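Narrative progress, year one. The postdoctoral researcher (J.K.) led the effort to move from monomer predictions toward full complexes, under supervision of the PI. The following entry was the first complex the group processed end to end, covering 519 residues in total.
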Amino acid sequence: MKPVIVKQAQAFLKVLALAVPLLMNTGVSVSASPAEAGAVAHDTAAAVVAETAGEHAGAAAEGAGAGHGDKPGDVIMHHILDSNVFAFEPFGEVELPRIVVGGFDISVTKHVVMLWVVSAILLVIFSLVAARYKNLTNRQAPKGLANAMEALVDFIRLDVAKANIGPGYEKYLPYLLTVFFFVLLCNLLGLVPYGATATGNINVTLTLATFTFFITQVAALKAHGIKGYLAHLTGGTHPALWIIMIPIEFIGLFTKPVALTIRLFANMTAGHIVILSLIFISFILKSYIVAVVMSVPFSIFIYLLELFVAFLQAFIFTMLSALFIGLASAHEGHDGHDSEVAAH
Amino acid sequence: MLTSGVILLSGGLLSPNPGLIFWTAVTFVIVLLILKKLAWGPIISALEEREKGIQSAIDRAHNAKDEAEAILRKNRDVLAKADAEAERIVREGKEFGDKLRAEMTEKAHEEAKKMITAAKEEIEQEKRRALDVLRNEVADLAVMGAEKIIKANLDADMQKKIVDSMIQDLSSKRN
């Protein structure tokens, strides 16, 4: 019985540790409200006073962010959008280098840093796992990290790749595995304090979806040949209808990656906007009660939902990529392709 | 809250950023290539190897089971055959024994009969011989007794007369 009570007490303390800073923040806002009201009435100089007051109180990220921006909407956008500054409020911030090559701005932004962090974590984890596998004989079962990763890898391999692509799925496996773990870790790191969701940026998801698009097209070309690929664009209809069918099929090629892009981007962004909005409700209403009754519990709930969504969206992105590749490569011409290969 | 909508529409959220696209592509491709070489190859080959190992183990187990079943069936057959054989042998042995016993008894009976008859014959013979011997003995005894009696009664003159008469007879007959 005793450990259970200790656990419950710990859980309660954890909730308290989450809730107390937020309550203190609302207190700061409330106390700062006269100054802010004055700022609105007089000049922007007073806003600086409010800002310093907010920072002086040692507010958490949200509170400090509220100090910077004028409106909650701006703060939320500031948290979601990419920037050239990696902020570690209240400890300060790191200015990221701006690089312009040949007129193109290829600055290392916050999301680029997150991508690199994700890459570094992935490389470390999987080099460890691979090293474990090299020492593993056929009769040994994997343990710990290797076992955990194996479950995911095997899931992608069998339930995603093999189930959707069918024979010849091994070629696409490295891409699918990489994209799954990459997206998953990007999603998860967005939920870590000071982290940013790189997959909540449409540029990142667009790039990933473009990879899927190219792989899909290459798979289709390989499976059907150029003639079959072009014939597929006509939808197998009468030549008189081609003038309608070809544009439709052509647009259809691009709807899939666009759907992939927007699905992942919107899911990751929406969750963060909801969490921040829920927190800001208590700031806007300047109420402890709203914070305790609504903002904190609901944002915790959405946070947990986001954890689930992080896995779900990584899975869906991979699943749909596999499905598109499978649709592109396995068609009515597939058997002919097989016999062609056999003839070679 | 209106401002957030304005920012979204003005392109803050959806604005293209070539730099980020470039870095995403570069990062992803590098990660893909490194992981492909470093991790996916060994992990997937290990998984496939293990899958094959498990499959072959299952196959082997099935084969072993089939073999064991076949052996069991064979053993049962052999056992049944052996049982039948043993029963047959016992039965035959019993029959043979019975026959042998009957034969032996019969033979023994016959032998005994033979022996009895032989013994009887011998006894008879012995009896006869004994009787013969007894008869001879009795005859000898009688002759001896008679001799004694005759000797005691014999007279030389009388005998001379008898022999003379006999010689006379003989000479008369020759003529």
